[in-house]
Amino acid sequence: MKVVFIVISLACFSSGLFGQQKIKLKEKEWVDSVVASLSDNEKIAQLMIIRAHSNLGPDHVEKVTNLIRQYNVGGLCFFQGGPVRQAMLTNFYQSIAKTPLLVTIDGEWGLGMRLDSVKKFPYQLTLGAMENPELVYEMGRAVALQCKRIGVQVNYAPDADINNNPANPVIGFRSFGEDKNKVARFAIAYMKGMQDEGVMACAKHFPGHGDVSVDSHLDLPVINKSMDELDSLELYPFRELFKAGIQSVMVAHLSVPAIDTTAHLPTSLSYNNITGLLRNRLGYNGLVFTDALEMKGVTKYYPGAEASVQALIAGNDMLCLPEDVGATIEGVKQAIADKRLTWNTIYEKLRKVLQAKYEHGLAHWQPVDTTNLLQDLNAATDPICTEVASNTITLVKSVTGSMPEFTGKKIAYVGFGLTDTNIIAQELHKDLQADVYLFSYKDQAEKAETILQK
Q: What is the DSSP string of 135-190?
């Protein structure tokens, strides 16, 4: 019954707001017309991104549907599911939206990071093993084409964090590496590839999530570095991305006393961090997203609507995954009544969001065509993965300066981080009779010594 309802509703695009798309309005005219159509509650709701899945069944679809219809939220962030199901839901959700939805996804290694049956592109750490930013650019283009094909306007990538803490439980392979210059260079290449194809890139996680040993999904990490240290390392890739023209940035949930000494205040809610550092000192004027406001790095100390209120006061433009849309609207209105916020601030952010929607085609939105969708999404993955693989083989030592001849030699394959053999191990064992040893991240030094002796 749910699927029938979705299919029927797609025939109704000519009614409601989407009927206006037949008239090609210029950006300011379109933005003005949308602002004039919104109630006060809807103006606030346009600053919110809500969670969406395509694998959670009718109850979840009904919940998202109700939030769109009741509040006219600004956008969706899609998580796990399937490509055709996501495309159909995108078409349905857009068809019932009074104002076109900004559709986002967290796809650092492409849509395969979230969607079943979509092949994954290489991790950023794998890319960092290369010396080929042109190939990173091509991957950025391919990821953008995936996003456009499925109706996504914003990809929360690249990760601009520096991988400078081996105990980091949440960044690691999501980073291009520990070299700030390579992180900046490759992040810019990835960003340019996406934005050249018309998809908004997003630098994350400002001011830098690399040097922590706590997952901000679970608690509030603390970074005890001086401002000079942050400026010379963590902030460097972000500065370079800002100069290169990245269109958005995502702010992390971190405690950084050098930026803001307020106890337990996440950087995502800090005026000193967002307005003082990001806006004023670094001069960034693009769209600013919070990291997910449902994460424990925020909710542990700022539960409910207060986190969203503080985030807007701090200078964020869009609230990602607020805990309760209705409560957030009421909280923001109360903050305006208490003179902690102003309607002018809301209007400024609203216009910025609507301008981004216009620039990414939402004033003239077209439904996603599901014909050959999966084939199109996977078209570029294998060639790019093959090229990356050939560029990331590292020869540690060679007397001749070339790859050694393996035939007839005694070979050991040591798989770090593996609990089971992968294709490389299987092929080396089959073709060259290699001995295979696995060393997982949970193994201790004693096992390493045993492997070494063998």
A: HHHHHHHHHHHHHHHHT--EE---B------TT-SSSGGGSS-S-HHHHHHHHHHH
Nearest to 204 by CA among 326, 301, 291, 130: 291
Strand order in the sheet with 48-52: 154-155, 102-105, 75-78, 48-52, 319-320
SS (H, E, C) 102-150: EEEECCCCCHHHCECCCCCCCCHHHHCCCCCHHHHHHHHHHHHHHHHHH
Cβ contact 155:199 at 8 Å: yes
- pLDDT for position 25: 86
Cα Rg of the chain, angstroms = 24
> Annotated catalytic, 360?
no
pTM for this one?
A: 0.88
Phi-psi category of 407—alpha, beta or left, where left has phi over 0 and alpha has psi -120 to 50?
A: beta
H helix count then E strand count, the chain: 19, 10
Model confidence at 173: pLDDT above 60: yes
The CA distance from 153 to 361, in Å, is 8
Active-site residue, from 106, 161, 260, 291: 291
Kindly name the residue from 60, 217, 364, 429 that is annotated as catalytic.
Answer: 217
Q: To the nearest 10°, the Cα dihedral for 148, 150, 152, 156?
A: -90
Predicted confidence (pLDDT) at residue 449 exceeds the cutoff of 70: yes
- Comparing CA positions, the residue from 111, 103, 62, 109 lying closest to residue 83 is 111
d(C-alpha 226, C-alpha 205), whole Å = 18
**pLDDT above 90 for 4:** no
Query: Are 249 and 278 contacting, i.e. CB atoms less than 8 angstroms apart?
Result: yes
pLDDT digits (tens, 9 = 90+) for 242-259: 999 999 999 999 999 999
Judge contact between 244 and 193, C-beta under 8 A: no
- Annotated active-site residue 60? The verdict is no
Q: How confident is the model at residue 21 (pLDDT cuts 50, 70, 90)?
A: very low
Is a pLDDT exceeding 80 seen at residue 15? no
Q: Is 239 within 8 Å of 203 (Cβ atoms)?
A: no
- Cβ atoms within 10 A of the Cβ of 397, count? 5
